[in-house]
Predict the 3D structure of the following.
Amino acid sequence: MKRRRALAAALLLAAALGTSCASGEEAPYSLFCWRPETMAQEEWAGFFSVLEQAQVGQVYQAFPEGSLAGEEAAAFLREAENRGVSVYALAGAPEWGLEQDAASLVSVLEEAAQANQALEGGRGLQGVVADVEPYLLEEWAEDRESLMQGFADGMTLAHSRAQELGLELLLCVPTFYDADCPEALERLVQHGCDGIAVMNYNRTDEYGQILEEARLAEQYGKRLIYVAELQPPGEHDLTEINTYYHLGLGVLHASWDSLAARIPYQRLSFSYHYYDPLAELLEQEGQPAG
């Protein structure tokens, strides 16, 4: 365990300094990408340059509906594999939180499995990242408990299907589930996923806001992914305290190093939200993308 933690610390330090990872090791960070255009071959140079500069080893990529089995997606997945980058399909909508059978999410999982089969030996998609946000629904205010119990039921079914298909299922969660629906959160972590991506978009108390999620992840042996916001203030009602846009990547990496030291869980990792502002910040800091 000490050796694994030492390696994780070394990788985090290398990323903070902008240096390369050791040969054969996956870069330590992950990245959300909502732009399907990055799959186009003419975008690869710039896209993978950003990933290399930012030490990104996993990409949570949004694919247009019904496109996972297409040739463009297949070519993108082959290129990512050649560059040592793992790809997850990023999908979800608030309305999926109403589906106690998780029909929409299961459909994405099955499409991902079909896409992997078509690659004939390639690694393909590592899994699916579900970004559902049921708290945006009217039902959240009307009957939060019933909504979240139904959502947990659906995620449990989806996770079971993901295991059958050999896919990893990650779930995006906000920082407030532990206060607003703790029982549902525990069910989601225990039965509904292989890991949680905590959307911790508030710099006020980063450690305190993910402490319960970290406890649950460690208790049930699940991945814990801390997600930091990079969008500029003013977009989507963001304020300065919600984002690292004006502080820069050096401050962000220092924060991540501090959290890694305070939460010594070997399955903790860190993620950028999201590709476009990350590319902008790299260019501002003198590392042009592409």
User: Anything to note?
Assistant: Residues 15 and 54 are 7 Å apart (CA to CA).
